[in-house]
Amino acid sequence: MQKCLPTLTERMDDRMTHTLSASTLDDLIPVHRLHRDQRARLAASGQIAVVPTGKKLTATQEYPWIGYLLAGRLCLVTDSEKEIIEAGSLRACQPLFVTDRLLDHAVALSEVELLRLDRQLYESLSGDPPVAEDLLDALEFSTTETALLGRFCQACKSGELALPSLPKVARAIQEAMQDPHINSARLARIVQMDPAVTGGLIRLANSVVYRGSKPTADVRSAIIRLGLEVTRATVVSLAMQQVFKTRSPLMKHRMKAVWNRSVHISALSFVIARHCQGFHPEEALLAGLVHDVGVIPILDYVSRYQREIDDDELEAVILRLRILVGELVIRYWGLGPEVVQVVRESGNWYRDTSDQPDYCDIVLVARLYRLNQSESRGPLPRHEETPAYFKLGLGFSTTSGQDVDVIGEASEELSAVIGMLKGNADVR
Questions:
Q1: In terms of domains, do 360 and 395 share one?
Q2: Is residue 148 one of the residues assigned to a domain?
Q3: Quick count: other Cβ atoms within 10 Å of Cβ 161?
Q4: Which domain holds residue 65?
Q5: Is residue 108 domain-shared with residue 204, that is, in the same domain?
Q6: What is the model's pTM?
Q7: Which residue in 78, 86, 138, 202 is deepest, having the highest Cβ count within 10 Å?
């Protein structure tokens, strides 16, 4: 049988020295098509994982990587069909899992060495675009995936998917801001429709971010201090907590996790925008809060129509459709093309489509900053290594040559914004 991978000794040497060379990838499909310097960059970010006998690997868990079998034997299970893959075979030169079969899994028949390459970095180097909104009609599903993915996709196409409504107070203030004669008194009456939003707006006006010489006690004074546009974006953001809710006990913990993550990224986006020229922090706040809004209709759909669902199957639905569904929600709410772009591209760490930074760059850096400081899976660049970070002008040093962490030094602002969004003064 033809060999296409380095010898076991070479692989062990690579693992012991923690280096992978461009030649390691010479015969791997499809990364062999990259230029040698591109393969070297991809190899530098790669890792070799040792998988014990009997360990199960799922396509959803391995999705951030392109994985290749270096040593040992695996059994790949696809739609109840089994395929034995041996290291050194032609099949081992191909990715273990493919992106359009997210319910596949593999079991290690012996101790296995798996080469993992950063999928996003490969896509950036090769120019292969990520899934876009116009690919909805082109999605194809395996027999197993059709059980849920197919039904969900059909609901998207037919318009039967229940999209969350923009909260009443948010919708009212969006409409009111279209009146060129709008004033603080009228906005105050709208905001007072929702006591939680009222309290949050007053807290923000009195926070370290905006407070003046005297504390603000009423909503109209808070609006005057903040300004009309700041009030609009803040009220929409504060009202969003109503959207991140479910009656399903099975989905409640997942929805809460999405909300907490979104709040943190939203607050980080706000802080970053305050340190960058040409941005409105409140717009960044809203963009960060809704960057992953596509998960909400998915969890709602599953809770109503799929009482029992395997975690891997649910993860497959979320991975495949969160961006497409998120775009549907943002367009339905009328939040504008910039927010649509945030939903679509803020998870593309190597995004570098323009010389000018935008709100998508801000949310991207916020997401990476959070992931790099918390438990995460998959290959991740440092937030300060991304094109977005440098375009935003966040990478600079003091006169003494010491790097400045503008996000880390804004902990008080960050806590204030998180407290405002969550409706509490002290933040965990």
A1: yes
A2: no
A3: 19
A4: 8-126
A5: no
A6: 0.84
A7: 202
